[in-house]
Structures are given as C-alpha cells and as structure tokens.
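REQUEST ID: PR-0412
SUBMITTED BY: lab tech R.K.
PRIORITY: routine
TASK: structure prediction, single protein chain
INPUT:
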Amino acid sequence: MKVQVLAAMVMLAATMAVGGEGLWITDFAQAKQLAAEKNVPILADFSGSDWCGWCIRLDKEVFSQPEFQAYAKDKLVLFLADFPSRKKLPDNVVKQNQELQKQFKVEGYPTVILLDAQGNEKARTGYRPGGAAAYVEHLKTLVGP
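STATUS: complete
OUTPUT:
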C-alpha cells in the first residue's frame, strides 16, 4: 500500500513539474513576457498540487489531457502558482506565489485566473466538470477562440 501511495505521489509530482509536456511556467515575470511576445492571455492556476483534491482532479481531467494541451499551446501561456504541503519550492517562488495570492485575492484552490500580458485580471474560473473538451469550450467563452 505504501509503495502504491508513493508511486502515485511521484507520478503526480512529475505531472505537475512537467505541467503537461513542459507548458507550465512558474516564473510570473517570464509568463508575462511570453504572453506579450505571443499576444495571448495567461492562464494562472493557483493550486495545492499535492493536497487539494479538486486541484488534482482538474489537472488529471483537464490540464494533462491532449485536448487542453493542444488548445493551450498556441492560445495561452500557462502559469502555475503552486502551494504544496509536501513538496519544497524555491524560496523566491514561494514568495512570488504568496504575493500573487494576495494581489488576486485567491481564497481557495483551485482558482484559475485569465490575465492579459500585463497581469491584469480578465476572467476567473476554477474546476468545472466535463473534462478537457468542455473546459476548452468554457475558456473560449472567456478569452475567445
């Protein structure tokens, strides 16, 4: 049983670290720069990746799925503001994420915020049932096709 739990935790950590084939950025300044260069919005995921059941479910059902990744690749810059309980993040990332949590008044997880390249909030959402295809359609209503 312990081996199965450990294996699941390692797999989850790898998924979140890779963030769907390396699409997720953890440096907010870099995310804004890339969004400006690509002229696309930022999807900021405020997550408790290793303890929040809804965050884990959102990642498994949506963010790690090919339908979402194909849409996000050219239409979004993906930024992860993670608040794990078991995984240690670099101090500068912890500080950045705490400042962003306060700035955007994030009170629960997951909170998904769509931002422009300057970091201004355009829309807010979170977990939604229905899987990746439904989530992509939902995002299209918030940011356009």
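NOTES: The longest strand covers residues 42-47.
REVIEWED BY: pending
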